[in-house]
Amino acid sequence: MSETDLATLLAFFKAMANESRLRIVGLLAERERSVQELADLLALKEPTVSHHLAALKGLGIVSVRAEGVIRWHALRQEALTQLNRALLDQKAVAGLNSDVGQEPWEAKVLASFVAEDGKLATIPASRRKRRIVLKWLADQFDEGRRYREGEVNEILQRRHWDCATLRRELIGYGMMAREGGVYWRRPEAEWRD
Predict the structure, then answer these.
(1) Are residues 77 and 112 in the same domain?
(2) Which domain holds residue 55?
């Protein structure tokens, strides 16, 4: 999980750890509402409700539209769903412990080559370092799932522009296999040094 994704996840849980914000999300899930209406329903002051709405808007899960002097707030369900898919899938959650149990040297190599946005700055020239980076890339793929070449390219391009070289390297190290334009991740025990 990239540092940006981790920061977004932390901000989401911090925002949703407040009972008033959870209630606001629940009320907005029913229909759009004004600050005054939310304040009346929750027995809170309008500035307090505005403060909570600002936190939810900052996450992108609440939208606002003006109608005269009244501002109507609505839950952006698609943003909530997208956030859920992007950050809370099994692989992303498992990525929260990506540096736990990792050799300090491996963590240092990844820190040297992977930028804060989760993109690979360069492909290491050293074979030993390259293997560490390729292992990190192979972890982007589910074992047992088949991928079309376009899907492989899309996943790799999220990390580095040169997906063709990375694809060849993953095949060369035995981390992935290919047949007829279909790719799959091989079990780690079968990878080559």
Answers:
(1) no
(2) 3-81
CB atoms within 10 A of CB 114: 19
Full 3-state SS string of 88-145 = CCHHHHHHHHCCCCCCHHHHHHHHHHECCCCCECCCCCCHHHHHHHHHHHHCCCCECC
> Both 106 and 186 in a single domain?
yes
CA atoms within 13 A on the CB side of 41: 15
Residue range 88-131, pLDDT digits in tens = 665 656 655 555 555 688 888 888 898 888 889 999 999 999 99
- Taking alpha carbons only, the member of 108, 157, 156, 102 closest to residue 129 is 108
On whether the CB atoms of residues 186 and 177 are closer than 8 A, the answer is yes
pLDDT digits (tens, 9 = 90+) for 17-40: 899 999 999 999 999 999 999 999
Task: Name the domain count of the chain.
Answer: 2
